[in-house]
Write a structure and sequence with these properties.
With 254 residues, the chain is an alpha/beta fold. The protein contains 9 helices and 7 strands; from the N terminus they run H-H-H-E-E-H-E-H-E-H-E-E-H-H-E-H. Helix 3 packs parallel to helix 9 and helix 5 crosses helix 6. The protein starts with a helix and ends with a helix. The structure holds S-adenosylmethionine. InterPro entries: SAM-dependent_MTases_sf.
Length: 254
């Protein structure tokens, strides 16, 4: 049986090996870099809303703490959806999952018949199949000149892009992009939709039905492998700076 000293030393050595682990160090460093990027998502969303230059309808899927983003959005009409998995108080308009929200919208149970949104911010459950459904449903309720904005499209390491939100000992330090990138990358390959990703705040993906924000990705990654994504990150996401995004958007001003 191990002595108390041996038990303590084992834990000390384990902690030390974790802190010196190259994957762990890389994850910590890349999280730090991402946390210190600006602008944050609300600034990009407000820029888009202002660009539209009309009375706008804004929808946020996945809100958690409204003061972090929702309250900072400047739009005449704002709607919020969240089932409340992470904040028991859940001060939102529709306390349901995004799937339920869109079903209720489709059947006319909620909101005005025929309502369309100008910007839909998808930041709910960060798993690829859910994000894909959120985008498909959003496209149905998006005005032709509207935008879909997706948070967390640019995971800095494979650990940030894990499917498991609950594993906290990860080199990601608990920062979680989930597999949102896979859904965004899937839409990046489609003709008839235009997209780019602003390189800030964990990757702010933007999709337009009408404005050419970027043509479809030609990157071949049929199995959605993270390493292949990482090697072709810029092209996979059409990753651009905020300045480049603003310049691009302004070329479409009448
Ligand atoms: C990352 S937080 C949202 C953060 C917020 N948008 C912001 O910018 O600060 C994710 C939220 O999505 C919610 N959520 C989880 N599953 C969902 C689902 N199926 N539909 C909609 N929201 C969901 C969680 O309850 C959580 O509050």
């Amino acid at each position: 049986m191990r002595s108390l000293y041996e038990k303590i030393k084992f834990r000390y050595d384990l902690g030390n090996s974790l802190l010196n682990d190259p994957f762990y160090k890389d994850g910590v460093q890349k999280s730090f870099l991402e946390i210190n990027k600006f602008p944050l998502r609300f600034e990009v969303i407000n820029y888009i809303l202002k660009f539209l230059d009309k009375e706008t309808n804004y929808l946020e899927i996945g809100v958690r703490y409204p003061e972090a983003n929702f309250d900072k959005i400047i739009s005449e009409n704002k709607y919020s959806v969240d089932p409340g998995s992470e904040n028991v108080l859940n001060p939102v308009d529709f306390k349901v999952t995004s799937d339920d929200f869109f079903n209720q919208l489709r059947t006319g149970i909620i909101l005005k018949e025929g309502i369309k949104f100008d910007v839909i911010f998808i930041d709910g459950l960060h798993l690829a199949d859910q994000v894909e459904r959120d985008v498909i449903n959003s496209l149905e309720f998006l005005n032709e000149d509207g935008f879909i904005v997706l948070h967390d499209c640019n995971p800095p390491t494979a650990f940030h892009a894990s499917e498991n939100y609950f594993y906290r000992m990860s080199p990601s330090g608990g920062n979680w992009n989930g597999t949102t990138w896979k859904a965004f990358f899937k839409f990046r390959q489609l003709n008839g939709l235009f997209s780019c990703c602003v390189d800030s705040d964990w990757g702010i993906g933007i999709i337009s039905k009408r404005l050419n924000l970027g043509t479809p990705s030609q990157v071949k990654n049929p199995y959605f492998e993270y390493n292949l994504f990482d090697e072709n990150r810029k092209e996979s996401l059409n990753l651009i700076s905020y300045e480049e995004f603003k310049t691009k958007l302004n070329t479409f001003k009448n």
